[in-house]
Specification:
345 residues; mainly alpha; 2 domains; 12 helices; 58% helix; globular
């Protein structure tokens, strides 16, 4: 028996499917056509059935819904007659009947028909393709960072590997987690729900996306330093200072910081500007390249682009920690003219 105050997970999921069905169909200005007990049965009658039946119906709803939304097709309604009279159908939504859940689980011929296989195939292929694109983008950043470590920063790399092997290993683990595990998953979500898939390229949207990411990172980064209750997310990155800075450690941050400070601003920018995947991918690559450059000690004495964050300024931030919060492009710290953005109150 469930303890008082615990959540009935099946009831929550059924409710979410019900709301999802109403919102999606109303937005399409069509009648309800996805035949799924998750969306139409009143009084949560389905909760009386076992988990096997429940999972089967959830999968049916997910795959059919994904296929129908993506292809804007009318449903081939599966009419499901009721085997007992205890189901209360909402007549104003749909005028049909449903099979009993247990009957469905024992009669798979009604489930595995051509359109079902098509919907499953398109869903799995779509998510796999999005994940592959995300892995390609983040994998290119990972490959470039390793190449820069072993070429431009080879002396700094050898110093870290010889004198601080554990710290180097921890950093590489974090990099792999962020670039190879988290990034492709986030990109899959963004690709399906945010990005436009047109083939045009807008320099205005691209520039705006870079600006939003830089501003978002600046305030998130600064807050992690000023607010001691948030600094734990950023502490790991500052274990790399002085002569322990190499290009790849640009992504040696905690998973929390990576999602909040690195990924969230650019995802928000993509949503607000309605960018396409080319603009989004180019912005990621541009930001990532400059992030690697400002973590390159060998470049700290080189002249840099005016108005941009230089390696010298960011490496100084790793040393003093209380200034130069901007990264990796626009030097927001320098835009004060009497109004010092980074001055503590």
């Amino acid at each position: 028996m469930r303890k008082k105050g615990t959540i009935n997970c099946r009831k929550v999921i059924v409710l979410l499917f019900y709301v999802k069905g109403m919102v999606t169909n109303l937005s399409r200005k069509k009648d309800f056509c996805v035949i799924s007990p998750m969306e139409y049965v009143n009084n949560f009658y389905l909760l009386r059935y076992n988990w096997k039946s429940f999972v089967v119906l959830v999968l049916i709803s997910v795959f059919r819904f994904q296929f129908e939304i993506g292809h804007e097709t009318e449903c081939e309604a599966i009419y499901i007659p009721v085997v007992n009279n205890k189901v209360n159908i909402q007549d104003n939504l749909i005028n049909t009947f449903f099979y009993d859940m247990n009957y469905i689980t024992t009669n798979f011929t009604y489930l595995f028909h051509t359109s079902m296989f098509h919907s499953i195939f398109y869903s799995l292929f779509g998510y796999t393709w999005s994940y592959t694109k995300g892995l390609t983008i983040s994998g290119s950043v990972f490959t470039l960072s390793q190449h820069m470590d072993t070429t431009i920063s080879v002396n700094s790399l050898e110093n870290m590997q010889n004198n601080h092997p554990d710290l180097y290993a921890d950093g590489q683990d974090a990099i792999i987690t962020n670039l190879i595990v988290i990034s492709p998953i986030l990109y899959t979500f963004v690709d399906h729900f945010i990005l436009d898939h047109s083939t045009t390229f807008s320099w205005i949207k691209f520039s705006g996306l870079l600006l939003i990411q830089n501003i978002g990172y600046f305030f998130a980064h600064r807050e992690m330093h000023r607010n001691k209750s948030l600094y734990w997310m950023h502490h790991f990155h500052h274990l790399y200072e002085k002569d322990l800075i190499i290009p790849s450690i640009a992504n040696a941050v905690s998973a929390y910081e990576f999602v909040i400070a690195y990924a969230s601003p650019i995802v928000l920018g993509g949503f607000l500007l309605k960018v396409n995947e080319l603009e989004f991918a180019m912005a990621i690559e541009t930001i990532s390249i400059f992030n690697l450059l400002i973590h390159t000690r060998e470049l700290q004495n080189k002249q840099w682009i005016p108005g941009m964050v230089s390696p010298r300024k960011h490496i100084e931030h790793h040393r003093v920690r209380n200034k130069n919060y901007a990264a990796p492009l626009l030097d927001i710290d320098a835009i004060d003219n009497g109004w010092v953005l980074t001055e503590t109150k």
